[in-house]
Amino acid sequence: MDLDWIINHHGEERQRYFGAVAPPVLQSSIFTFPDVAAMRAAATREFDAPFYTRGSNPTVHMLRQKLAALEGAEECLVFASGAAAIAAAVIACVAAGDHVVCVQKPYSWTRALLADLLARFGVAHRFVDASDIAEVAAALTPQTRLIVLESPNSLTFEVQDLAAIAALARPRGILTLCDNSHASPLNQSPLALGIDLVAHSATKYLNGHSDVVAGALCGSRALLERVFHGPFMTLGAIPGPHDAALILRGLRTLKLRMQRVAETTPRIAAFLAAHPRVARVWYPHAPENPQRALIARQMRASSGLVSFALKDADAAAIARFCDALQRFLLAVSWGGYESLVCPLVAFLPAGAPLIQQPGRAPPELIRLSIGLEDSDVLIADLQQALAQVGAAP
Ligand SMILES: *Cc1c(COP(=O)(O)O)cnc(C)c1O
After folding, report:
1. CATH superfamily for domain 254-386
2. Hey, whose CA ends up nearest to atom 5 of ligand 1?
3. What is the pLDDT of residues 270-283, one digit of tens each?
4. Which one of 90, 150, 154 would you pick to mutate in the ligand 1 pocket, going by the greatest count of ligand atoms within 8 A of its CB?
């Protein structure tokens, strides 16, 4: 199935709803049946068929089919958030006494899931520098059931060799989960590399318009049925049909949006790398990135994230820079049509010293999410804001 078919037609059954081109929002919690036999049959097929919207809803089902096709997966489940998708995946794979190996510096709530929530229920974990396959191998124990990856990972964008880690895990009966939000299904296909489960924050590129929080999980039918009959149905973190319809609309331009940021983001990364006030740039596709060969092997193109640190900048100078930007909105998250700036100092108390914590991103890091604007406009804005870093407040 080609990408244009998936985006424009796959999963849509227009003849069933008056030929409407846009998908209907089936705002119904329940579905009725002509007789008891039909009701009984539907009750056993909740994974696929409309019965009760916590299990399946036709608008959400269209989205599930498109996302599964985009990831080359048998099945997909959609959740109320990316965090819910990741939590459901992990919970479905572990029990008390089990052990999880997780990439160092994962998304903050993935860290909290393992370090705080599941630790209370007897699930042990270890965070490792998973860019080094030997560290992953050394962290495995007889109790390890799952390896949680995020490639590229949040904020500093280290990548993991997905095929090598899958090859390490599979013969030992260990499952692998990869958060693919950064690359999007267009730029990386973890399942094709042997990974078992792929999670997305659909809040980011899949929806792409900063108006929905949602998540997705893709994988084999067998694994997703395990997730469905376990945490999916019991925790019930489902998206509403309106949210699903908004994401279906966002997906119409996914290819165009990813093509756009793949063109503009390298220009912005190169501008920052060459600027005398910039100390360091984190960008997966930078020519000097030591992981470049691996990235070329397992990723197709650049997404729109780039992080950097200013030279000799304290928290006040970082704030001056961010406050001076006119074209980047100050906000968390990423992956929308609009460019964003997110300085990590915003998460520290005012006046706190910038101290590097082990296994965390540097506190002076500033992340940009590049939107759909002209790169010239964004570079001019960065230029004028960088000129103000040294100025008196
Ligand atoms: C945002 C994000 C999540 C969480 O997704 P939500 O939709 O905010 O719950 C998970 N992983 C990564 C890499 C993210 O950036």
Report:
1. Aspartate Aminotransferase, domain 1 (3.90.1150.10)
2. 82
3. 999 999 999 999 99
4. 154
